[in-house]
Amino acid sequence: MLHLLNDEITITPQEGYSAYGPVKGQAVTVRGRVEIEDNLVVDADGSQKVSEMRLFLRPGVSISRGDLVEAHGRKGYVISIALRKGFNNVHHQQVEVGGVNG
Length: 102
Description:
This protein is mainly beta. The protein has a single domain (2-101), classed as Bacteriophage SPP1 head-tail adaptor protein (Thrombin, subunit H, Beta Barrel), CATH 2.40.10.270. 0% of the residues lie in helices and 69% in strands. It contains no helices and 8 strands. The N and C termini lie far apart (28 Å).
């Protein structure tokens, strides 16, 4: 699977909110797979949103809803995260990203 994770992805975690808006953490760069296409997904609140970028990441990569993601010159926010299993263990994370610009 490692040969499929050939894209560079920068994740900037959202650590909370202040009076001035979201508080961002330290950005980290990881390897993963990026697919750019529109998909209709359901977010944590049950609302339908359009995901414009799908990421495939290793299971240990730290990522949460609302984090800012940048890949291939595009930026967006994490809408949803699904853990995909292969038989008995988590094989990878599938991350849907919306609000993409770039």
